[in-house]
Amino acid sequence: MLKKSALYLAALFTFFPLSQSAFANAHPDGHQLIQDVHQNGAKIDIDEDQDEVYDAVQAGLVKPFSELYAMVEKDFHGRIIKVELDEDDNEWTYELKLVHENNIIKVEYDAATLAITEIKGRDIRAALK
Fold first, then answer.
1. Which option is the CATH number for 39-127: 3.40.50.410, 3.30.300.30, 3.10.180.10, 3.10.450.40?
2. Which of 54, 58, 83, 96 has fewest C-beta within 10 Å?
3. What is the pLDDT along the chain (129 residues), one digit of tens a residue?
4. pTM for this structure?
């Protein structure tokens, strides 16, 4: 099956040549699309395929990092040390780890609405703004 697909693509590109940059511009990397800002010291972990992420962003199921970071800044004291983007049954979730006064706070946000869905950790009230 894989060989057939590769042969099909080779034939397709032979008849319809397309530069690599034109292909990239037609369908950007979904991971780069949501990572519109970077925060020093934050580990980013996206297990989902970049095409799935791209489609989810286009469908409005995932907000970009800039909006997530703004929401975290509004809701919490502390520093983000890890961000994960997960999908389960077409529901996308951001899972964050924050450090505040030597405590790790785990926060889950709905990736489409950026509503908090879960908070775990010690001394959570001190971390809330």
1. 3.10.450.40
2. 58
3. 444 443 343 333 434 443 333 333 444 555 555 555 566 666 676 767 778 888 888 889 999 888 998 999 999 999 999 999 999 988 999 999 999 999 999 999 999 999 999 999 999 999 999
4. 0.67
